[in-house]
Description:
The structure is a single chain. The chain is α+β, with helices and mostly antiparallel strands. It is 47% helix and 17% strand. It is built from 28 helices and 22 strands. Helix 10 runs antiparallel to helix 11, helix 19 runs parallel beside helix 23 (462-495) and helix 23 crosses helix 25 (516-525). The chain is globular and about 85 Å long. The N and C termini lie far apart (68 Å).
Amino acid sequence: MMRQYELVERVKCYDPTADEDALKRAYLFSMEAHGSQKRASGDPYFSHPVEVAEILTEYRLDTAAIVTGLLHDTVEDTVATIEEIEFLFGEEVAKLVDGVTKLSKLELQSQDTRHAENFRKLLLAVSEDIRVLLVKLADRVHNMRTLRHIPYQKKRARIARETMDIYVPLAERIGIQEIKEELEELAFWELYPEVAESIENRLKFLKETGENVVGRISDELNRVLAESDIECWISGRTKRPVSIWRKMQRKNVEYEQLTDIIAFRVIVASVEDCYRALGVIHTRYRMIPGGFDDYISIPKLNGYQSLHTALIGPEMFRIEVQIRTTQMHEVAELGVAAHWRYKQGAALTEGKRYHWVRQLLDILENSTSPDEFLEHTKVEMFSDEVFCFTPKGEIINLPQGATIIDFAYAVHSEIGDRCVGARVNGKMAPLRTEIRNGDQVEILTSSDGTPSPTWEQLVVTGKARARIRRYVREERRHEFTKLGQAMLDRAFHDVGYSQTQEPSRNVLEGFNAESMSELVAMVGSGDISIPDVVAALVPEKFPLCRDEESGTSILQRSNWQSGEIPIRGLTDGMAVHHAKCCHPLPGDRIVGIMTPGQGVAVHTKDCETLESFADTPERWLDVAWDIGPTTLVGRVKLVVANEKGALGLLTTVIGQNQANINNLKIISRSGDFFEIVIDIEVRDSAHLYIILAALRATPVVASVDRDG
């Protein structure tokens, strides 16, 4: 364990202006606060914060960060408080300690939820000061180094999994390669010890039988570049077991099928020399197709720059070569910490420079729970990148598999919400189109455009998925409010009551509602019944009686249906809505599916969605249409020839068959055809099928089907 004077000297070596007094006081304060506490290894607990501080000195961090490393566990594990830290060490250190402090005392429902909440709050702190993350990563490095001392295998596995899922990608995002690789390696050996040992043994065999193949290839590359007057420094190594394992997983191949397991780094003096060296190497050796990436022209999100190429190199070995300048190499190894080499005091604003932090904060804003936030965040951080461009030439980074919808939300949340179409490289393309490297994408928007619930199946980025889910939640609440208001209006009319003012606070609290609008939405979702609401609003006229069997309150009045939906077989006051997956109409054979808190969804009996409810027969209700004079909406999807007057002809056919268009939306358009969805007001299913037949007979219609 490093002593006090050793730590001070270490910091002063790279920062002569460091606050020596603050470092000494923090060292003594932490030692006294942790006192006789022990770690699982039996070592004094105080050794942990000292080791964390030592790791931080390797990245030449400033005094405040080193002091935070010494104090980071005092608030959680001792009697020290944030107020005391602020009084003794200042506001800056107090904020850093508060951001790093583990939040293990949160009273949450599950271990996973606690991890999600911890990470959510960590991100908020990181957005203000990147040093919070640097200290947290150093803390995790030392905990992983000593993980073997924890006696419980399940606990070790949980910590290793959290490290792999959260802290490895975070270290990669800020470009600290050394920490990323160490955390990944330690977690890999804990989670997959047999796989790790097998790969390690094979690498040892390669090294023993290869007679220093890495050294020979390095020497030849050096000689080839020297012949072209390019001064360089070359290092080579076999890839790490975890890197090989990830490649095996990604390509779905066995170890024997991997050939490029040796990687070399070529460090040169300038950017010009990077491209000169690349030209020489490509001239001398055969490049493997698809194996070249230029991260100098288009850097990664974390600032990483380098040229990557895969070759059939010296002695016919398949190798990977990375070419970069000295400064690029330092940033590649140290990431954000490299900035302290050139500029002190960068920490307060460094976090705000990172676009990925803003993206995760957008996800945070649109998520309703810590678990949902963690789900979207993992998607956002675990992704190979695709680089594409806006019409103005701005670079947009997206994960592999991202679609046009992901691109729209990456540009701006409002652009994503209003997206109705797109041009990719100047040509119209469906929204489901996957983006490829180098694509130029132009998003077409409409002031009336809204996200579709189906978009959630077409996106891969956490930001897009969180925003779409938020819209769907708000839309569902709007539907529940609309339905609940119709049901209450009908009920109020039946009992001769007219609501003229907001209910009293006592009435709202009785239903756990904040306002009348929330109360109405709860009625629409089926969380509360109409009789209970009416009885609460006018108790002097409609007293409640007690059901002896269930113990629930019921109003002395029945025959209250759900207002606008003509269906038999439902309990009075039950919330009902037509499923949007199949759009049932009078005349269709239907079934009801009961969902707690949402009421009954009515489906057609041949709806594919019903398969997901096969194991819960208790949720099925036997319902039927109570046919009456009503108008409902049927949805049809058409592929129509892109000709003048085509839309006019469609509307004429629909009008001639005594129907009205409720809504029309063009989904995609090409030079020959366009695909549209039309909502048509009809009497029943027979009426809809008459219209379908008429449309099929229309010359401009290539195909038409009921949507759902």
